[in-house]
Write a structure and sequence with these properties.
Layout (H helix, E strand, L loop, with lengths): L2 H23 L3 E6 L4 H16 L8 E6 L6 H12 L3 E5 L1 H10 L5 E7 L17 E7 L3 H12 L5 E6 L6 H11 L6 E6 L3 H11 L5 E5 L3 H5 L1 H10 L4 E3 L2 H5 L4 E4 L2 H16 L16 E5 H6 L6 H4 L4 E3 L1
Parallel strand pairs: 1-2, 1-3, 3-4, 4-5, 6-7, 6-8, 8-9, 9-10, 11-12
Antiparallel strand pairs: 10-11
Helix pairs in contact: 2-11, 3-4, 5-6, 7-9
Length: 324
């Protein structure tokens, strides 16, 4: 072997331990996750993790996750405090209730949210363009979208005279949605009323009461409670022939009549892009909050038939997807 080849070979060999040492000592980044404990939320979390994997993060080698999945209202602040004490590099949350709990637990750790309605009106960020502080993410919508959802429900059922707004009282966004519905209802010749629910018993009792009078409809706000009991809500609505509008398509796939919403899986993947950027050094205050670019109007024709509803052709034409 020539002398210069030997020296190059020796230098390369000497570099091997250094490279191996650097690989061993590279810090694994910690990402906290706070989402409600439902099958849907877990599916969205998997989409979020896959989004990070697609951006080059490998679980167990360059990134690890610490998850908390509250079942009850009381667990949200408890689990948020647990995550904050772990000191993760960034925290991902799903929904207003998770974000509210996490914001109360820390004002230093970066938080990336998804599935939060009108974060400016709720006081989570200063503005969409300049969120300020440690919070940014991907909003579901602004509260005004509720008027569009109500309008679509009325188009589906022109004879509807009353609508009940089913919501979980612990949801921070409920007041904003109700204000939009209450404002829009008179222009659609509708009488709107609230329907607070916390348990399956609340849901059954409320729907039975709504069905006692004719020409009623149901507007269901997404929450841990309604997600957990969506099959019950769908079955009762069908039994009592009540048309229903929902925020997410998974309710319609489970038997609800209609939904008008962005794709939550796509939003989870997009949230991963912000977590990636923060892990690489960007600040939440410099990342604008983004609104959905497209909504999907989904109809369940099987449910329509089950409640005796004949959907007009011009309304069917508005749908992005019809579930047969």
């Amino acid at each position: 072997m020539r002398r210069r080849d030997f020296i190059a070979s020796a230098a390369g060999a000497a570099a091997w331990p250094l490279a191996a040492l650097a690989q061993k000592t590279e810090r694994v980044r910690l990402v906290g996750i706070l989402v409600g404990n439902s099958a849907d939320a877990l599916g969205w979390t998997e989409a979020f993790k896959k989004g990070l994997a697609g951006l080059g993060w490998t679980e167990g080698r360059t990134i690890r996750f610490e998850e908390r999945r509250p079942d009850t209202d009381e667990q949200f602040p408890l689990y948020a405090a647990q995550l904050a004490r772990l000191g993760p590099d960034v925290i991902h949350v799903q929904g207003s209730q998770s974000l509210q709990a996490m914001r109360q637990a820390t004002n230093d750790i970066p938080i990336v949210f998804k599935g939060v309605s009108d974060p400016v009106a709720q006081g989570f960020v200063s503005s969409l363009a300049r969120p300020g502080g440690n919070i940014t993410g991907f909003a579901d919508d602004e509260f005004s979208v509720a008027s569009k959802e109500l309008e679509l429900l009325k188009k589906l059922v022109p004879t509807m005279e009353r609508v009940a707004f089913m919501y979980d009282p612990s949801q921070p966004a409920a007041a904003g949605y109700w204000a939009a519905i209450e404002t829009a209802a008179p222009s659609l010749a509708l009488h709107a009323a609230t329907m607070p629910v916390r348990t399956a018993e609340d849901i059954e009792r409320a729907i039975v009461a709504l069905a006692r009078e004719p020409n009623g409809g149901l507007f269901v706000m997404t929450s841990t409670v309604t997600l957990r009991h969506r099959a019950l809500i769908a079955n009762l609505a069908i039994r009592y022939r009540l048309p229903s509008m929902h925020e997410y398509q998974n309710f319609v796939q489970g038997g609800g009549l209609a939904s008008y919403a962005p794709d939550p899986v796509d939003m989870s993947r997009r949230a991963a892009s912000y977590v990636d950027r923060i892990l690489k050094g960007e600040k939440p205050r410099d990342l604008p909050v983004q609104l959905p670019t497209r909504y999907q109007f989904i109809l369940n024709d099987k449910t329509a038939k089950a409640i005796g509803l004949d959907i007009a052709a011009n309304v069917l034409a508005l749908a992005d997807e019809v579930i047969e």
